[in-house]
């Protein structure tokens, strides 16, 4: 392993102070000499006196006159140095200066790295762990200590933690690994670097390894910062430690450091202190399997994946801010508060929900009435009875257990709505597996992020999903919903078919093997992904009890139950239909493109299921209205039998609801307000929308007031407002006072449990809330005097003008009344606090190309807006979100408008 290292790896040089570098306070820099040492830690052959360079905030804290509550011990990896942690040092002092808990930060340069001594000795993992122990002994470090490590510095820091249980109160890591699975290869970049003909030349003789590492930062490092990382490694004589670190990667059990790595891995699993695992998913070296391994060893750990970040995580993302938020929550005084000790996930034996999600299937299992109607089935419309569906769910559930699916396993469902998806979903939930559902409307890139982030153990998919999983490297063992030729099964790595699984289950049930008891109510049942319209899609975790509560609130609010016919043109309702006991039909449409749904397709679905309830997304509803002229008398008569239709997922205008009631004249039109995190929060019908009067501009609700009336809270739901400051930040004080604009905060039994592996996001969504059912929605709005909720936009779209905050929906609604204007997007450009308002409009007829509005149109828009508008632009089509195709992407509009108004090319946004 070490034979590829050139002789320069044995170069020696004294420790030195670093030069002046951006972000690095010279007051932090120290040289510490550790005397020749001996003791219990053999470590390796080198016990000589050695001098370290390290960064230390002890002096800066003393200058502030504060006493630290503990020490954060930071260890870099390869080929970085303590400079990696400069933001952590700075943030620690900022927190202390602001009166928060003061943590001393010590960030070391490992020997042969950074500005520490070049020892001339190839240091293996045992030596490095012992080295760090000798240094902390020399520093006289006492507890409490929290370790923070990156890359192989994570391994060293965890080794130190395992060896110092009396000092350690917490462990944190950034993209590291403590175990290499026997059935998985070393990542390709490391395999390349480890080749004898590459190792020395790529890591020591040339700076290739260093430069490659710096090049994979996301976003690209500033030149000065990159030079800061290069500073201690200029010249091959100073890069021996880089090559030595690579050579020390244990590729097999015979490697000299393999046993030490095994020792650390075992020790980590025994740690019972708070843990935080931070991760950059775009890392080409530390793949997500290493995060999974750490999570298995530390099941109580908090995890946050910074979507879009990569290997140089502290450079790519706000590691420092997340660290100190976590320390403040978990170790506010340097120790775990009484009663808040880390605990393992819920174990079997907890109380089962009184009415599991599949209860209606059990009640109706002897009924030959229709449960599902598939409009686009091969060969025409297909009807599945409750008897057949119940039996199929039981058989698939038993078969999944037979092929190895375990309670707690994650199962990704890459299947379009229909019988296969329904059977697979309820079978998984029945045996305690956690279903992962990501909308195909996310697109391949979004689906890849979602599936890889959720790390499923199994994938049940139709051919398109399986092909994508194979091509894009999605994890999970594969089950196909259709029969495939042997070559295709092998190419797609399909181990089973759903029909084969059901046959195995049928044999198992016939032999007398019963299905297990209902899973505990507080264990995860599903991970449902958000639309991705406000950033990367997030996995929302629901427990069995919470999914049952979703079913119950929908049933209570709308009277949907056994015998109801439901046209579900909105995926959540398609999946919840059987739980409600409703006869469900998914209309013939492309589920990834809601605007493909036609009025005739809805009418056909209503007739096929004798439906009285229709649920459509706003984009689908708009196209249904647009295609109504194609309806014949029979189809219109079918739509006349609908008694209730609902549309949700984005704001729905009164005009669109009115047009829909002309198609379904006997139906009550409702538009629920909710989100993936809570599917039904409030509800309003069309008469209430017409009767509601928006708050006039200047009446106290903030500039831009108005918005979309979404009605009163549903049963068991509480709604409060967190008022906005002048800078657009919601306060911690919640109010139910009327006409106060702020972030909408909800609480209900059916609000999700957490975001999956997004500790920071989860924290933000509940920051300052005492109700464990609470959720900060990220929407802004106000309550009116009658208790109805009005939505005014998204928190990130609030415009902070010199005269105060402005919410976008009110001005957009007023501008849309201007003749010749279709949809509108209002956005702010410029620095926070001095932003200017820009209105971007679709014209009727559509503009041929983007540009400035005509003087007459601009004047009319400004007159209608009710707020100062700096510029009016026209576009052929406004950019929208990818799932609903109806939410205007104001963030994208703001970037585009800022670019074109500052002289950029006038291209489509």
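Sequence proposed for the structure above (909 residues):
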């Amino acid at each position: 392993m070490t034979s590829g290292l050139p002789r320069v790896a044995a170069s020696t040089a004294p420790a030195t102070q670093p030069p002046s570098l951006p972000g690095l306070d010279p007051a932090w820099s120290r040289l510490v000499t550790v005397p020749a040492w001996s003791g219990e830690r053999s470590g390796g052959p080198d016990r000589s006196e050695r001098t370290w360079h390290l960064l230390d905030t002890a002096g800066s804290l003393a200058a502030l006159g504060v006493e630290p509550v503990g020490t954060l011990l930071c260890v870099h990896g390869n080929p970085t140095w303590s400079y990696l942690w400069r933001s952590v040092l700075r943030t620690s002092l900022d927190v202390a200066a602001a009166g928060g808990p003061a943590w001393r930060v010590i960030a070391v340069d490992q020997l042969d790295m950074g500005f520490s001594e070049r020892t001339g000795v190839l240091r293996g993992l045992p030596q490095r762990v012992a080295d760090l122990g000798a240094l902390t002994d020399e520093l006289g470090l006492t507890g409490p200590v929290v370790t923070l490590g990156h890359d192989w510095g994570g391994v060293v820091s965890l080794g130190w933690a395992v060896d110092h249980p009396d000092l350690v109160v917490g462990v944190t890591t950034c993209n590291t690994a403590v175990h290499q699975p026997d059935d998985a290869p070393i990542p390709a970049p490391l395999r390349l670097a480890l080749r004898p003909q590459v190792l020395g030349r790529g890591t020591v003789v040339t700076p290739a390894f260093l430069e490659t590492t710096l090049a994979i930062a996301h976003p690209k490092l500033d030149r000065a910062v990159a030079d800061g990382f290069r500073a201690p490694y200029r010249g091959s004589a100073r890069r021996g430690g880089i090559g030595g670190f690579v050579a020390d990667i244990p590729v097999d059990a015979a490697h000299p450091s393999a046993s030490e790595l095994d020792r650390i891995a075992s020790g980590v699993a025994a740690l019972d202190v708070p843990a935080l695992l931070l991760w950059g998913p775009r890392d080409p070296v530390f793949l997500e399997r290493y995060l999974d391994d750490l999570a298995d060893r530390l099941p109580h750990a908090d995890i946050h994946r910074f979507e879009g970040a990569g290997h140089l995580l502290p450079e790519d993302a706000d590691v420092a801010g997340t660290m100190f938020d976590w320390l403040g929550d978990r170790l506010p005084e340097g120790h775990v508060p009484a009663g808040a000790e880390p605990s393992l996930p819920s174990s079997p034996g907890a109380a089962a929900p009184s009415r599991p999600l599949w209860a209606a299937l059990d009640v109706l299992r002897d009924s030959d009435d229709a449960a599902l109607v598939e409009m686009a089935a091969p060969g025409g419309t297909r009807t599945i009875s409750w008897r057949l569906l119940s039996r199929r769910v039981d058989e698939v559930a038993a078969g999944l257990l037979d092929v190895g699916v375990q309670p707690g396993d994650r199962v990704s469902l890459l299947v379009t709505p229909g019988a296969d998806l329904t059977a697979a979903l309820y079978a998984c939930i029945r045996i305690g597996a956690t279903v992962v559902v990501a909308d195909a409307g996310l697109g391949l890139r979004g689906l890849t992020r979602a599936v890889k982030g959720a790390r499923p153990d199994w994938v049940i998919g139709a051919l398109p999903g399986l092909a994508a999983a194979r091509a894009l490297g999605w994890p999970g063992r594969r089950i196909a919903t259709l029969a495939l030729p042997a070559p295709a099964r092998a190419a797609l790595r399909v181990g089973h078919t759903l029909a084969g699984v059901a046959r195995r289950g049928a044999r198992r049930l016939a032999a007398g093997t019963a299905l297990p008891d209902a899973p505990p109510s507080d264990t995860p049942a599903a991970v449902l992904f958000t639309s991705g319209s406000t950033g990367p899609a997030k996995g929302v975790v629901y427990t069995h009890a919470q999914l049952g509560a979703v079913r119950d609130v929908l049933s209570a609010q709308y009277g949907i139950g056994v015998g109801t016919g439901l046209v579900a043109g909105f995926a959540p309702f398609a999946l919840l239909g059987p739980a409600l006991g409703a006869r469900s039909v998914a209309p013939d449409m492309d589920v990834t493109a809601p605007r493909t749904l036609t009025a005739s397709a809805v009418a056909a679905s209503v007739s096929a299921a004798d439906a009285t309830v229709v649920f459509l997304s706003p984009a689908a509803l708009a196209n249904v209205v647009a295609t109504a002229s194609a309806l014949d008398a029979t189809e219109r008569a079918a739509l006349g039998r609908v008694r209730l239709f609902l549309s949700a997922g984005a704001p729905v205008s009164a005009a669109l609801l009115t047009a829909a009631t002309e198609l379904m004249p006997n139906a009550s039109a409702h538009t629920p307000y909710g989100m993936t995190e809570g599917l039904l929060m409030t509800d309003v019908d069309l008469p209430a929308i017409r009767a509601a009067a928006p708050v006039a501009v200047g009446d106290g609700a903030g500039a831009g007031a108005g918005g979309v009336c979404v009605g009163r809270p549903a049963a068991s739901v509480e709604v409060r407002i967190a008022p906005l400051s002048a800078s657009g930040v919601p306060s911690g004080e919640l109010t139910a006072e009327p006409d106060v604009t702020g972030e909408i905060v909800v609480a209900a039994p059916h609000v999700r449990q957490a975001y999956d592996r997004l500790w920071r996001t989860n924290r933000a969504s509940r920051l300052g809330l005492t109700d464990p059912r609470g959720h900060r929605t990220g929407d802004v709005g106000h309550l009116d005097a009658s208790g109805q909720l009005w939505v005014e936009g998204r928190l990130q779209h609030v415009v902070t003008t010199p005269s105060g905050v402005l919410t976008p929906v009110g001005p957009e609604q007023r501008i849309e009344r201007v003749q010749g204007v279709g949809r509108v997007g209002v956005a702010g450009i410029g620095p926070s606090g001095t932003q200017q308002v820009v209105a971007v409009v679709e014209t009727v007829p559509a503009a041929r190309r983007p540009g400035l509005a005509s003087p007459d149109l601009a004047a009319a828009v400004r007159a209608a807006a009710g707020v100062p508008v700096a510029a009016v632009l026209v576009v052929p089509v406004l950019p929208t979100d990818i799932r609903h195709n109806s939410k205007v992407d104001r963030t994208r509009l703001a970037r585009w408008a800022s670019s074109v108004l500052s002289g950029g090319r006038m291209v489509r946004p």
